[in-house]
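Progress against Task 2.4 (sequence-to-structure conversion) is shown through the following example record, which the project officer requested during the mid-term review.
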Amino acid sequence: MAKVVQGSRIGRLGRLAALSGRVGGSLVARAANRFSGGDGSEAQRWAAQQLVETLGRMKGLAQKVGQALSMDVDHLPPEVREVIASLQGKSEPLDAAAIVEVVEDSLGAPLDSLFDEFERQPFAAASLGQVHRARLADGRRVAVKVQYPGIRRALEADLENVGMLVRTVGLLGGPFDGKPYYDEVRREIEKEVDYRREAQSGRRFAELLSRHAGLAVPGVVAERSSDRVLTTELLDGKPLSEVLKASQTVDPELRYRLACGLAAALFGPFLGAGVVHADPHPGNFVVLPDGRLGVLDFGAVKELSPPFAEAHRTLYRAALSGRLDSPVELLEHAGFTLTAPRQEVAAFVGRIFDIIRRPVAEPFYDFGPDRMTADLRALVRSNFKTSMGLRPPPEGLLFFRAIFGQSMNFRALHAAGDFRRCYEEILRASIP
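Structure tokens generated for the chain above:
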């Protein structure tokens, strides 16, 4: 096991280049296999496994990209997505002695004086740190999230490598300039390495989500937390990622309740306080024995500006009412930059609105065969010029990422039911 995460820019770029070569060769083999009468699935699984092993060792931004990729129900075969989904909660752990050293150095005391028990083997390993079960002197069972040694340098290297690409593409100017979005992502990711901020966000979400039935947030143990160690109450349940693997065998009512819980975890804090949990991959949720949905990991929390939040609250209400007034003005209020003709933008947004409100348009909706994401992508392709003349504000990047992620969770759950009622209840609880 490694003692630190590799942080060299060249070394990390080299790993990705080598991965690209291996996966590319695998896809050629898949094509040859299919040409000779096979289905190419073995080559696909091998390529996915290579992706998991490499990104899991690299941690940081590389693993975050893999986690996001694993959620796309529309573009990955189920067997490939299942392999890559392991990045949502498990990857190669770091050397136990190195992790103990971080805990003792960060909390300023020997491990056995901090915890009565501390499991050396992590039960979850994510992009910035790994999580260990432990027990405090008062008997409480806790989860101890420990930051990987070297992860700050590794993140910096990944961001610099991405920044080089963004600067190159940005030379084209106009709609191809991604620097404002890169700067936004960089600022938000750099905040994630401070676990004190995550602890504060966790406390805030615990208060906001207490208004919504069926949700649980682990309490923070402040005296065992620091900038690199975060100790919380242990929510011992089944990871949502495991539920998704066998979702069609899960009781339909439970699937519906879980989907409503996911919606509340996203929209409740947004409607109530303008903040979103921006990393909704299934590894960040657990299904507790009593049926509640546990919400974890508050490193990626985004606070939206009042104009952006209010504009999207208006859109939320409009989706429930079925009437969207002044769409162009609403976009401008939210901070969108419009260069396409206003009449074209209004028609384009109207068609988007018709698609995104489908789940609340009728008393029953089935996310299993849902085509919202596919239809939105097709709409953008067929109206490419108009869509390029409608640039969202950088602050919306993580918000839209969260919306997309949760829609993929609903699809993977094959959830069906009265989502209109679900979204109305979220609105009532969030804004009394």
